[in-house]
UniProtKB/TrEMBL annotation:
Principal location class: membrane
One GO BP: gamma-aminobutyric acid signaling pathway
GO CC term, one of those recorded: G protein-coupled receptor heterodimeric complex
Membrane topology qualifier: Multi-pass membrane protein
Domain G-protein coupled receptors family 3 profile: 470-727
Keyword Glycoprotein: yes
Protein's recorded name: Gamma-aminobutyric acid type B receptor subunit 2
Length: 777
């Protein structure tokens, strides 16, 4: 191994000597560059940055056309990816008066570069970073003399947006580590995405445990996830993603690809996922990184004269590593090489311009003066050349405008799949030609979100027709009872039961049946405006119908109660006009509430969204139930007013039925039947009302409410009128009572005092009936 390396070094030395004439270094002045490298800490082990810088120095110093009177020397100092350590090393070296530093190369991490770049301009020094990508470094107010060869993360955002446009992803989620470099980048991405019509449906950040944030992204249904974090946090994110099953054909992860080689396989006690699980969850993620080593076929010749493959061969020799891609900082080796070349080219041109000044000056006279610094700054701002990393040019912010590479992890290897060149065309198009195709494990491009479909819950036509038919049957039944009541109104058995009041009761029942038809009219068969009017009509019919039906029934019972609770034998007459007055009061009260409701808080059509439901056969589809409802702001209070009135009416009816339970003239008294009706209505109301409020499915809701209304109305009418139909052939309404008197008279001899008392009460009862038989005339 040592022998082969030695031979390789000799071969490349011969190449350099043959390519460039020998330069006599004895008469050259040294120009010192301060190099900030991660010499210690987690980023320093087997790191590749310094060998790349040394290779650049070797080529520059061997080139007689670049700074022929000078020799470039880099003084390395440790930045350690730590701001305090970096600025301490810079201060110590700048205050070392034995050497004058003419420029600063570095640092590696943004956290180390920011404080040094914020201070170095006070010494009139230009600083060029080879790796730092923080968007904050683009601020010329804070970093007035800073440049960088690694494209900023803002440029990576442009690729993220372009990637979403390419595959028609309109909804994405983001998750990033809570650090300034990532927070600024994601904030910028959110703005760019919004401008591009891309919705960020979840924006999560975390400090050290991303479990909750990953679960939030899973619950919201995002499929395209854009992440930004360091390698050790990336392992925690993906372990949490594995536990949430957020990987495979349905998910796409888009990450910055400057993470260390096989970052997901590094041993980490902070996660409880195996290597096999981490391999599974990271498979096929898409990485975005500045293109540092463009292929020979996709690049113009570099200024150094080397192709990418030649550069890599030379780097292997100087780094003494046959597999440099495993070295920390390998991605940045071409940026480092081009950073030194940028400094050399700027200094070479600055030397020429300084010599043209009056009086003439040179670089070796540099003493941290602003004139030389400004000349170097202007030169770099307008500098353009072909570097190993591709075309080198700078934006006014000092950011490199360079190539951006897209890679995908396929079978454990990073495969180049596309590239964006901001200097060509609109600068927003991704070139896929000449690269490997993207692999989708599902065989097709994943969708960006669960397919949301509206499930408008309208009443099925068949169900509406069934309800309408039942309502029609009920109306027909009420019409039959009404015809019967009118036809036999002169019969004593019908006449004594107040046929006029019975007619009103039947009209109330018809209104209740009609409300069933109105209830079933929705946007499936009518317009929204018609639907609202049907809602209002249904409310009117049901409220007024209830008052007429039960008010009529209870008013008759009140008359019986009035007659038979009279302690004297004085004739008591309660005519129908008085009962009609009571009914009119109830109806007027209902109408008044309805008018106030319409005037102050009218019903409007609103869409009520139910809980989303995932399709059983395809979990990419989620249905959102939508019910069209008739609602108003204070609807609860208006409905509550009807509940109070109708509830009091039922209680009053139950009281009257109980009070008249001993009146034994069926033709006159309906107390037993009223009790049955009240019992049925109360049971149906207590069961149906709460269920109807909870039930969201439109068809089930209509079926339940319509059935309850139909049953309550039908049972009430049948219980009240069927006995009358059966009694229509009775000769005298008091026949049963007279029979009872005869039976009691026959048994009076030897009977008890209680029997005598009952006989006396029954005779009085018959007398009262005869006196009041004209109540319905």
């Amino acid at each position: 191994m040592k022998m082969s390396c030695t031979v390789s070094v000799l071969v490349f030395c011969l190449v350099i000597v043959a390519k460039y004439p020998s330069v006599d270094a004895s008469n050259q002045t040294k120009l010192y560059l301060l190099g900030l490298f991660p010499l210690d800490g987690p980023y320093a082990q087997d790191q590749a940055i310094q060998p790349a810088a040394q290779l650049a120095l070797q080529d520059i110093n061997a080139n007689p056309d670049i700074l022929p009177d000078y020799e470039l020397v880099i003084i390395p100092r440790d930045s350690g990816c730590d701001g305090g350590k970096a600025i301490n090393g810079m201060f110590r070296e700048l205050y070392n008066q034995s050497t004058t530093k003419i420029m600063i190369i570095g640092g590696f991490c943004s956290v180390a570069t920011e404080p040094t770049a914020q201070a170095s301009h006070h010494w009139n020094l230009i600083q060029i970073s080879y790796a730092s990508t923080s968007p904050k470094l683009s601020d010329r107010g804070l970093f007035p003399r800073f440049f960088r060869l690694a494209p900023t993360d803002f440029v990576i955002n442009a690729v993220r947006v372009a990637l979403c446009k390419q595959f028609n992803w309109k909804k994405v989620a983001t998750i990033h580590q809570s650090a300034a470099i990532f927070s600024l980048t994601m904030a910028a991405f959110h703005r760019d995405a919004k401008d591009a019509g891309i919705e960020v449906i979840a924006a999560e950040s975390f400090i050290d445990n991303p479990t909750t944030q990953i679960a939030n992204i899973k619950n919201i249904g995002a499929r395209i996830i854009i992440g930004a974090f360091y390698g050790y946090m990336a392992r925690r994110v993906f372990c949490a993603a594995y536990q949430q099953k957020m990987y495979g054909a349905k998910y796409v992860w888009i990450l910055p690809d400057w993470l260390q080689w096989r970052w997901w396989r590094d041993p980490d006690d902070a996660i409880d996922c195996t290597q096999e699980q981490m391999d599974a969850v990271t498979a096929n993620y898409i990485g975005i990184i500045a293109e540092s080593l463009p292929s020979d076929s996709n690049r113009a010749p570099s200024l150094s004269g080397m192709s990418t493959s030649e550069f890599l061969e030379r780097f292997k020799v100087i780094a003494d590593n046959e597999h440099p891609e495993t070295m920390t900082g390998f991605v940045e080796i071409s940026f480092t090489y081009d950073s030194v070349w940028t400094a050399a080219l700027a200094l070479h041109e600055a030397e020429r311009r300084l010599r043209q000044l009056e009086p003439s000056r040179t670089l070796k006279e540099f003493s941290y003066d602003s004139l030389t610094a400004q000349i170097i700054f202007d030169i770099i701002s307008n500098l353009t050349f072909q570097g190993i990393s591709g075309p080198v040019t700078f934006a006014p912010s000092g950011d490199r405008v360079g190539l951006i590479l897209l890679r995908q992890l396929q079978d454990g290897k990073r495969i180049n799949i596309g590239m964006m060149d901001p200097t060509v065309g609109s600068g927003e198009d991704i070139s896929w030609k000449g690269y490997q195709p993207i692999y989708w494990s599902g065989g097709a491009t994943p969708i960006d979100f669960m397919i949301e479909r509206e499930d408008r819950q309208t009443i099925q036509l068949s169900l509406f027709l069934a309800g309408a038919i039942l309502a029609t049957v009920g109306i027909a039944l009420a019409c039959c009872f009404l015809a019967f009541n009118i036809h036999f109104r002169k019969l004593r058995v019908i006449k004594m039961s107040s046929p006029n009041i019975n007619n009103v009761m039947l009209i109330g029942g018809m209104l209740a049946y009609i409300s069933i038809i109105f209830l079933g009219v929705d946007t499936n068969i009518a317009s929204t405006d018609t639907f609202v009017w049907m809602c209002k009509a249904k409310t009117c019919c049901l409220s007024i119908g209830f008052s007429l039906a039960f008010g009529s029934m209870f008013s008759k019972t009140w008359r019986v109660h009035k007659i038979f609770t009279n302690k004297t034998v004085i004739k008591t007459v309660v005519k129908d006009q008085r009962l009609f007055g009571s009914l009119a009061t109830l109806v007027v009260l209902d109408v008044l509430i309805l008018i106030l409701w319409e005037a102050l808080d009218p019903l409007v059509a609103t869409e009520r969204f139910g809980a989303k439901v995932i399709d059983d056969e395809n979990d990419d589809i989620v249905y959102t139930p939508i019910r069209m409802m008739c609602e108003s702001s204070n609807q609860t209070y208006w409905i509550g007013a009807f509940y109070v009135i109708d509830g009091l009416l039922l209680i009053f009816g139950a009281f009257l039925a109980w009070e008249t339970r001993k009146v034994s003239i069926p033709a006159l008294n309906d107390s037993k039947y009223i009790g049955i009706c009240v019992y049925n209505v109360l049971i149906l109301s207590f069961v149906g009302a709460p269920v109807s409020f909870i039930l969201e499915e439109r068809n089930a809701h209509y079926a339940l409410v319509a059935t309850l209304i139909w049953l309550a109305t039908t049972l009430t009418l049948c219980v009240v009128f069927v006995p009358k139909v059966r009694m229509r052939n009775d000769v005298q309404p008091t026949q049963s009572a007279i029979t009872m008197v005869s039976q009691l008279s026959q048994n009076q001899h030897g009977g008890s005092s209680a029997d005598s008392t009952e006989l006396r009460q029954l005779r009085q009862e018959i007398q009262r009936v005869k006196q009041n038989c004209k109540c319905s005339e």
